[in-house]
Amino acid sequence: MTKYSILRALLCILGLILFLDGLLLILQKKIHLGTLLPFTIGLFFLIYSVFFNKINAFIAQHPKLKKIWKIGWMLFITWLLSLAVFFIYLTQYNQSINPNSKVAVIIVLGSGIIQGKASPTLAARLDSAAQIALQQPQAIIIVSGGLDYAETKTEADIMAQYLTENYHIPTTRILKEDQSTSTALNLENSAKILVQHQINKNAPIAIVTSDFHTLRAAAIARKQGYHDFITVNAPTPLATRYNAWLREYFAYISGAILGEY
After folding, report:
1. What span is annotated as the signal peptide, if there is one (predicted)?
2. Other C-beta atoms within 10 Å of 98: how many?
3. For 185-203, what is each residue's pLDDT tens digit?
4. How much is the average pLDDT of 98-121?
5. Distance from first CA to last CA of the chain, Å, rounded?
6. Contact at 8 Å (CB) between 106 and 95?
7. Which of 66, 138, 140, 226 has the CA that lies 20 to 30 A from 164?
């Protein structure tokens, strides 16, 4: 088997994996860059592997196209390397977090509800927040999330209900921030609740979010004036983990460009 045959086989296998991964999640209505990009790249790899010889022969006959083709692959490989660096940095950042620090407030960032119930990603965040809350009964909890499309209850209401039903956390400990639709608003509106309850923003705070989201959440919190805080990373369900991390790669870059932090 020649090196080109091996390359062709690898492209076919990788393309099939990426294509099916993106397709299955898109069919579940999880439509974002983290699913569309693997789907598109996988489809391209599949087409290229099937028509490998014809495509290469056609490109070889057009010098300008051949040059563009090489530059395209170089840019793609460079992007893959930058993605790998982001994943490694995010992993190391999450490993350096100490979730056992004593805190006065636990802010749980929203992540969507499905037919009146917490999504798997949101449930993981609430489970992580509950573990801290049970160990630190002095801490109040702010659940943060507004009204999702086609839902009748706010995300904050569903989050509070989840904590009381699954962990028997008293409703007196839970404050609802039910107006926000983004991370920046989650934290901005939560700060207003702190003021209403005479809690200093510099109080020790745990911001609970998903493992892929900690970097951006921390950067936004710092810009908004939170100082003595830790981010607590809840594990993302394996079925959507790397798609979520891929989406976050672009969200982190766009956040920097738009001046979110």
Report:
1. none
2. 7
3. 999 999 999 999 999 888 9
4. 90
5. 51
6. no
7. 226
Name 142's bridge partners.
107, 175
171 by Cβ neighbours in 10 Å (0-12 / 13-18 / 19+) ranks as exposed
Segments making up each domain of the chain, as ranges: 3-95, 105-257
Joined together, the tokens standing for residue 13 give 């296998």
Query: Contact at 8 Å (CB) between 99 and 230?
Result: yes
Q: Name residue 225's amino acid.
A: G
Structure tokens at 261: 């932090």
DSSP states of 175-201 as a string? EEE-S--SHHHHHHHHHHHHHHTT--T
Beta strand ranges found along the chain (DSSP E): 105-109, 113-114, 117-118, 140-144, 174-177, 205-210, 229-234
Give how far Cα 227 sits from Cα of 97, 121, 223, Å.
Answer: 15, 26, 9
CATH 3.40.50.620 describes domain 105-257? yes
